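testing teh design pipeline on a random one, pls ignore if ur not involved
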């Protein structure tokens, strides 16, 4: 699957073979009783948006450790088992490049609590607030909810999605 727009500037999708991210980050998509636990992001990249809890990898930790640490830091909860749902590579026209590992979970311990970084918000799976989310979410969240593993390349100009390619979508996880 791919969008059809022409790509301005020096980047194109799929990214070149030698593309490498400056930074790696995690997202945790937690679902309980047909509702998804999201955050209203209070600072940093994507401030004001609704998205999954997550953040950038710290030295020495695996991506799954990063996901669990960010869940604790942002919402004060401890994750149960997570499965890797997909990997998205983001290139921003201003130069920032980010590889995001997306984890799916269905159990956690603790009460989601507001922190300096995020406020917890629950949405029914059929009423996710895509108009308040990063534009890529509307494309890969349905794949994740169908247990389909995905890998995508996404080109952004600030908060606008310019072009994308889903490089890999598995029929079953
Ligand atoms: C560009 O499209 C994006 N889509 C989605 N769904 N999520 C994105 C996109 N770009 C970034 N993200 C996510 C990935 C990370 O979870 C956060 C960014 O992490 P942040 O800048 O908040 O990193 P922290 O380590 O938490 O930073 P601070 O603790 O310094 O706030 O956004």
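output:
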């Amino acid at each position: 699957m791919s969008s059809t727009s022409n790509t301005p500037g020096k980047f194109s999708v799929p990214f070149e073979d030698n593309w490498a991210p400056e930074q790696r980050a995690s997202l945790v998509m937690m679902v309980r009783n047909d509702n998804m636990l999201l955050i209203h992001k209070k600072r940093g990249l994507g401030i004001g948006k609704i998205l999954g809890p997550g953040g950038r990898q710290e030295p020495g930790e695996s991506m799954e450790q990063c996901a669990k640490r960010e869940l604790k830091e942002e919402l004060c909860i401890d994750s149960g088992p997570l499965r890797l749902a997909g990997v998205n590579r983001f290139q921003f026209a201003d130069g920032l490049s980010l590889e995001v590992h997306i984890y799916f979970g269905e159990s956690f311990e603790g009460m989601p609590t507001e922190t300096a970084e995020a406020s917890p918000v629950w949405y029914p799976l059929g009423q996710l607030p895509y108009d308040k989310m990063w534009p890529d979410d509307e494309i890969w969240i349905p794949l994740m909810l169908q247990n389909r593993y995905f890998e995508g390349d996404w080109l952004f100009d600030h908060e606008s999605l310019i072009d994308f390619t889903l490089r890999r979508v598995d029929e079953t996880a």
